Predict the structure.
Amino acid sequence: MPGEVAETETPGRHLPMPVTRARRIEAEREVYRERQRLHQARFPDYVRGWHRPTSETASHICYDVLNLPLVSSPDRVAAEQAIVVALDAAITAGESGRMLTTNVVGEELGRRWSDHYRHALECGPARPSWDMRRTTLRGAWRDILRNGIEFTAILDIVQRGGGRLQEQRLYTTGRVSTRGYMVTLDDDTAAVRTQFVSVLDADPDYRRADQHRVRVLFADEPTPPRRERCEVAAEWKYNIVTVGPRSKELIRRLEAARLYLNVAELRDEVGRLGAELAEIRSELQTAYGLDIGVSSSLPRGVTPRRGSM
């Protein structure tokens, strides 16, 4: 498989820490924490790049908002933060209509806690986990364990929607065999979900994942830089799109287009279409048992036998 090369350490950097064959993680955690200390002493801004919720935010959400039992973990703070991050990833999946899979949770935890995953994102070109090398994903899984995060326990909380009682849930989930879970952001869970999101929005360090692709900008907003178009496998680029002078001129003209809208009428139209969609969805569910929110295809990076990174 292309890109399957042995791990090598970068001179002067203590992270990512190479994957070991140790069966027990306890002793490895001590070595990892020492490497973290040395790396952060050399690169003081490294820790700021994780954008995790603060320990105060995580504790407040886990115990005051969701009323979860006290987390038992080698690193309770990291475990509480990971629960919050994973639940927010599920809410984001529900907002964008995506399936909640093991990969969705694993990728978000990887972005916040794995040095291997972060290194792959910073070096590019891979973005989702299925574009990365196996060694990167093995390292990401090991990094999560080194940080004292018990993935299976967090996945159970995410799949049920939050707290143990229905009134402590952030959303409702429905199991889709061999695929994952559909997340429904219903009215019954809206109050707790609104409180959850407002607490996260007030956090000084955390950044919620933005899953919505911006297709229209306000007139005074700068145009984002153009991204290279290509396919990626095992962190290697191929089928790279070469943009010639004529294509560049066409793109420039398209970017120069201006759209004038009556905001009040646009909001009314969006509301009308939303109500019409809800009515059609209800009719299909009642008459035919068809849920238009459930796709018949597997999410990318998931197979019927393995649904994880």
